[in-house]
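for the writeup, i need someone to sanity check this before i put it in the appendix. the sequnce is what the collaborator sent (i think, or maybe the updated version? ugh). structure was predicted straight from it, no edits. if anything looks off just tell me and ill rerun, i have time this weekend
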Amino acid sequence: MQTTLEDRFHRVHDYLRISVTDRCNLRCVYCMPEEGMEFEPEENHLTFAQIAEVVRSLAVLGVRKIRLTGGEPLLRKNLEKLVSMLAGIPGIEDIALTTNGMFLQKKAGMLKDAGLTRLNVSLDSLRPDRFALITRGGEIRRVLGGIDAALEAGLDPVKLNVVLMKGINDDEIEDFLKLTIGRKLNIRFIEYMPIGHDDDGWKKRYVSLETVFERAARLGWKVEGAAGVTGNGPAENHRLVGAAGTFGLIHPVSDHFCKSCNRLRLTADGNIKPCLYWSDEFNVRSRLGDAEGIRQLFLQALSIKPETHEMALALNQAGQSHIPTARRMSQIGG
């Protein structure tokens, strides 16, 4: 009997990302079309009890880390109840949340008390007008208030996710780096990815993350490596010398981290995705009520997980070995 979630490339998976809803109150330009999308009926979403059942089944195989995503996960009513349920499962050591922060100010304390350990907030601009344009309606004051509330609640680390886009927000790199000087924040610069795009328009917005070092050097800031940043992600972490916070670079396209991938995904409608980029999915609903059946389905998903996602081939218009997903990021959970 297999005792770990290990794939054919000997990658051990101890991290599950769970989307609790595909709905979102924003329409970020890289995530969702302006007209919105046809969302899953809420009755198609896994219940909290079903999600906890899946996690309980996988904890036996070594899953220790959970991240709740969406859509916008705080649109799911009483999300702190799910956090509490997951925190009570033997073996689960770390529960994180990715949010757009619009509802965070009222929820941060309750989530921390329920057992949430860490937090990522999507924040692609520090300028109110530009933030509203990127998110198609977001209010940055609410997000900043939520970040303050999270820090006050004791969530650590608090990470800010910044998708860099050429001609849209790449002129704010210095402003984001300045945020780390006096505050214990981790800014994560993320390359624009071709998830759910059926054309090559995303390439026009692609920015190499080497630009971050170039901007720091232009201002005379010295950069050093930063060890000890808690998290399950693939970020290369750095620090401006003397800064309280840190910044990370995530290169899913130019320098993929597939070799060390330790994550699986469960969508809000109950589909296991062994890889973010490819279209392969396995629906878990038929196995609910059967813990061993759930484990076997995840092992089946792992058995076909490719060695790499090949996003760099998409950037260079080269052929790919598998079929990319047609789902938007909001439908997968990131």
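Confidence is low (pLDDT under 50) at residues 312-316. The two ends are 31 Å apart (CA to CA).
thx in advance!!
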